[in-house]
Amino acid sequence: MDGENRREAFRERFLNSGLKDFTSAEALEYLLSFELPPDTAAHTAAKLLDACGSFSAVLEAPYSILAENDLDEHKAIPVKFLPQICRIYLDDKFFSENKRFDLEQFENKIIAAFIGSNYEQVLLVLMDSNKKELYFGMINKGTVNASEIYLRKILEMCIQHNAAYAVIAHNHPSGIAFPSDKDIETTAKLKSALLSVNVKLEDHYIVAANHSYSMAKNEDFFDIFI
Q1: What number is the average pLDDT over the span 28-53?
Q2: pLDDT for 145-195, tens place per residue?
Q3: Bigger pLDDT: 4 or 129?
């Protein structure tokens, strides 16, 4: 089957049943076929999967790796666009109408914020006295192996937004969703610092892949959040 016919077959399958019956290679090929000639999309998809190891790794690969495997910066836009649009979609999906703190949806929203990130980042959430969301965003980008949480910057933002509650989260891109000794130490320092500006630290989430760990829910750390 030539490239044009393959793309048409993919289109019909997608319209009939979405992507549920697609392999990762087929999904990537169909995505690439919107920028590449259909006759080369299959070869490039296979080459990228072989080089990166998985569909998600292709989406998270830097432009330099994509370029080494026949996908220049312009043609890579759909690949780099997909994780970003997924993040926007999930943020909107789990964003309650009145922006109030919804614990059931909150962890999903936090996990969604780190989709596609292959380096450590720190997320800050600020809320008012009624737990209405005032701020939700990344405040720091670190290296793959380490990320410092800047206490002064967090304190300044709490004052700027007149916050009463704060939640922080950071990711372990190549690890597990469990706090390190450094994470525990930093959380305790942050809690004390926030009290100086009358802000209560509600939680510290550790995110890895599609999993999150809430320190405030674990009895080993209850004393930090009292």
Answers
A1: 92
A2: 566 677 888 999 999 999 999 999 999 987 889 999 989 999 999 999 999
A3: 129
CA separation, residue 10 to residues 18, 21, 34, 47, 51 (Å) = 10, 10, 12, 19, 24
What is the model's pTM?
0.60
Contacts 24+ apart (CB under 8 A), 179-185: 179/204, 179/206, 179/213, 179/215, 179/221, 183/215, 184/215, 184/221, 184/224
Tens digit of each residue's pLDDT (9 = 90 or more) over 66-123: 999 999 998 999 899 998 888 787 777 665 555 555 556 788 889 989 888 888 899 9
Longest dimension (CA), the chain: 68
Distance, CA of 75 to CA of 117 (rounded, Å)? 21
Enumerate the β-bridge partners of residue 127: 133, 165
The 3-class secondary structure across the chain, one letter per residue, is CCHHHHHHHHHHHHHHHCCCCCCHHHHHHHHHCCCCCHHHHHHHHHHHHHHHCCHHHHHHCCHHHHHHCCCCCCCCHHHHHHHHHHHHHHHHHCCCCCCECCHHHHHHHHHHHCCCCCCCEEEEEEECCCCEEEEEEEEEECCCCCCCCCHHHHHHHHHHHCCCEEEEEEECCCCCCCCCHHHHHHHHHHHHHHHCCCCEEEEEEEEECCEEEECCCCHHHHHHHC
In 10 A of CB 29, how many CB atoms?
A: 26
74 token code pair = 């312009």
